[in-house]
Amino acid sequence: MRRALPSLAALPASVLLLTSCAQPADQAVEEQTPIGEGAVREQLSIVTGGTTGVYFQIGGVLSTIIGDDLEGQSASAETTGASVENLRLLGNGEADIAIVQGDAAGQAFEGVAEFENSGVESYALGVLYPNVFHTVTLAGTAEEEGLECFRDVLGTRYSVGAPGSGNAATTSAVFEALEMSMGDIEIEQLGYAETDTALRNDQLDAGSWVVGEGHAGLAELATTEDVALVGMCDDERSAITAGSSSYTEHTIPGGTYEGVDEDVETIAVWNSLVVSGDFNEDQAYDITAALFANVDAVLDAYAPAEEYLVPEAILNSPVPVHPGAARFYEEQGVELPDELVADTGADTQG
């Protein structure tokens, strides 16, 4: 195994990101139904991301698993703007299950950053795999601009990600942690497909892709263009991971993308599968159990998840674990720390 699962550390507060699993902010939606006591939902909407992304692929697999394994239930994977939009859809009752970045889930639970005055409580069914921060450019541009560390993107034409996306939120957090000013770059707010096109047409110098390792869109770009990835230097990674427990250091192995032969040092953030608090407890248990009973199907869609998609990964959850899922993990011998135990108002969790 190339990278060991990091343990859940004490959850610090920062101005931009709060990933503590303490009491949610006052702005969070007030509880209407006790946690886990909602009705079983027969038709489930799974909100994911763009059609070329890993979220959409995994959402499609999960919808098949639910339809095949759970009697009387069906699900569909919906394409969206990803994490931030997914959490808002979940909070508005327009989605049942969401795949999200952990930093965005933590922000929503606390009602900060993108979710200030509009917090969203969500509860984890599972932690899937890490999204990896890729700083993407072309080899010629990297040489011309001297792009060796992340701070070198200052002064360039740089895409931070689509407005309201988890990609943009994570990029903002990186800038904040490194005390970099967005005013010192020519900001573009482009999705992955638009970033691809802008790089090809010399309309952009670099951009952030906070995606699963081996992302299909990025892999395709690397087959037709001489792509380079700008790594984060040691002090940059240390500053980012020290500022928030949402982030861990990560190595993109050389050869992951065509033409990128050397390892690239960067950071990553865990992806989570979350539901609202009133999601039925037994249904949450059944879906979590079905997911782990069909891990091979998930790996067919995204093989790099193999070393991460294990029950113990739930210890990296940015939000409390749904009581139904908690029951499954307890059966697997995973002991949840107090900060990951959902407050149901009853002394039923240990």
Overview of the structural elements:
By secondary structure, this protein is an alpha/beta fold. It folds into 2 domains: 43-130 and 270-340, Periplasmic binding protein-like II (D-Maltodextrin-Binding Protein, domain 2), CATH 3.40.190.10; 131-269, D-Maltodextrin-Binding Protein, domain 2 (3-Layer(aba) Sandwich). Helices cover 31% and strands 19% of the residues. The chain has helices at 54-69, 83-91, 102-110, 139-145, 166-177, 192-200, 216-224, 234-243, 281-293, 295-301, 323-331; strands spanning 43-47, 74-78, 97-101, 123-138, 157-159, 186-188, 206-212, 227-229, 247-252, 264-275. Strands 1, 2, 3, 4, 5, 6, 7, 8, 9 and 10 form a 10-stranded mixed beta sheet that branches. Helix 9 (281-293) packs across helix 11. It starts with 42 loop residues before the first strand and ends in a 19-residue tail after the last helix. Mean pLDDT is 88; it is low at 1-31.
